[in-house]
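Entry 14. Structure prediction run on the chain below.
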Amino acid sequence: MAATPATTAATASTSAKPATATTPAATAGTAAEPAFGIHHISLSVADLDVQESWYRAALGLDQVEERLELPEAGVRTAILSNGAGLRVEFTERAGSTPIDTPDPFAATARQTFTHLALQVTDLDAAFKRLTAECAAPAVVEPGPGATEGVRYAYVHDPEGNLIELIQPAAR
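Output returned:
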């Protein structure tokens, strides 16, 4: 069987040595090898005002970092943040159509980003808050993840976008 980029990367990562001053990992972030981090996630939405209000209440995204309106294109955007690094950009475009993502597995039927995953310290409390107080429809109830000690759950936002809640293993 020929090695694919994915299997080659997986093989390489399992035999990788700890980073030292001479390995590429030690120089990540330099001009030769830039470091990457996630700045924001973007959601195409049907109703910017509804989504903005829900995400403010549900996830504490109470800071507006940017707002843009392009009436000639039928586009309105807002980037909201919680001040602690979580940023979500919402783009409302006239005539956009939804993608149905009833659950995490159905979401993978299309080759695109499938959900927003948020790390939480108390999965049960976060799930209860989103489903009971913020009316987020439950998709997958809290349960054990694939990695020992990790727990996860899924909910939908008001327009059906998937949000995964992940509680890491206790250290």
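Confidence is low (pLDDT under 50) at residues 1-25.
Filed with the rest of this week's runs.
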